[in-house]
Amino acid sequence: MGTGAADLAQGLFRILETGDADLAADLVSEDFRNREAAVAPAACSSPGPAGVLASGVWMRSAFSELRFPIVDTAGNDRQVWVRLRMQGRHTGPFVRFRDGSLDQAIPPTGREIDIEQIHVLDLRDGKVVGHEAVRDDVTMLAQLGVFPPVPATALRMIAWKVTGRAARAAVRVTTQAAEAAAPVHGSR
Description:
Radius of gyration: 16 Å
Low-confidence stretches: none
Helix content: 40-55%
Number of strands: 8
Oligomer: single chain
Largest sheet: 6 strands, mixed
Number of helices: 6
Strand content: 25-35%
């Protein structure tokens, strides 16, 4: 894969789709920082390829058939702006965090998601060093039946919280994300 701005963008989202650790090592700087990791498991905030791999596991644990078709890119040798769609099927719990703790767990709905997003990637020395995004989370929550609340989805979310399934899902995805990041940290 090339190291031009558009190639780096395509590669980063391919890593999120597939978990390709070799591609992550090739395209993601050890100094990489993800400003969007605040709602993700702690391992997603890890610097370098580890954080990207953990983020991919977190998203793929909730959305099967996860893909990020790129609509357009623009950039220079320091930054690339990416307009894309996040698409997939909600087949696992979508767990969101706040300050490192469980904030919300949305039980699997089986629904398709298709949301437009804009990502800004910082580049240096032919690698991705930073990420931030403008996402349409309200549309995604609407597609999942959370906002405005569809009664059946709201009841399932309450049941998951009361029975402890939400907490168990948070532990499971946190563990999976940490495991995805561990081999990268162990190779240093």
